[in-house]
Design brief:
Elements: H1 27-43, E1 47-49, E2 59-62, H2 86-89, E3 101-110, E4 115-122, E5 125-135, E6 137-143, E7 149-155, H3 156-168, E8 184-186, H4 187-192
Bound molecules: nickel (II) ion.
């Protein structure tokens, strides 16, 4: 096992569609997943896609903290988070004890047209987050490490995580899904200037005049 370097926005591997995994049961794929798990836990993330560790294959991993695995999209949770993100670090659950989801060659089908805005961060865009529209209800299928196909439904935060991670496999980062880029910003600025605070009450309002 090894902690791998995480590619940041701009890296070529993050900008191109990835190739299908030919043999999900290959030892090299199992080794890759082990390294990705260690990398994700080291970075304090919820999910990780293979291209984020510079491997252009259609494979993602994620974990669902119990507080975020329920049906509702809580609206204030980051998808990948990271240690520098105080929200992501506030969970009391030991991430090493959470079930690990491994999706190989995943396919997503939206169930219905409904979308919702929710906060997302990404280990490839450190210290930032944005409000991203995602389908609220999806079906996804893929293959596991055992080579067996599976299919399941997901709602809320679970559905959001799957959409975020699988977008990486097509060279899509979450800002590319945003419809209002004024809702993209640095975590420390969001902490100082919450969206619901009137502009006149924000600490920098007078300084800007
Ligand atoms: Ni990401």
């Amino acid at each position: 096992m090894a902690v791998l370097k995480i590619a940041r926005m701009g890296n070529a591997t993050l900008r191109h569609p990835c190739q299908p995994v030919k043999d999900p049961t290959a030892p090299a794929i199992r080794a890759l997943v082990s390294d990705m798990v260690e990398t994700m836990l080291d970075a304090g993330g919820v999910g990780l896609a293979a291209p984020q560790v510079r491997v252009p294959l259609r494979l993602v991993i994620f974990q669902l903290p119990p507080s975020r695995a329920d049906i509702e999209d809580a609206g204030a949770d980051d998808v990948e988070g990271g240690h520098e993100d105080e929200d992501a670090a506030s969970g009391a659950t030991d991430p090493t004890t959470l079930p690990l989801h491994v999706l190989i060659n995943p396919v997503i089908t939206p169930l219905g047209e409904e979308t919702a805005l929710g906060w997302e961060g990404c280990l490839s865009l450190p210290r930032m987050r944005g409000l991203v529209p995602r389908y609220t209800h999806i079906r996804y299928s893929g293959v596991g490490l055992d080579g067996k196909p599976f299919e399941c439904e997901a709602k809320g935060f679970h559905a959001r995580v799957v959409q975020h991670e699988c977008d990486h496999l097509d060279g899509i980062l979450y800002p590319m899904r945003m419809t209002d880029l004024s809702l993209l910003g640095y975590n420390d600025e969001w902490a100082r200037h919450p969206l619901d605070a009137p502009a006149a009450d924000r600490p920098d309002a007078k300084a800007a005049e």
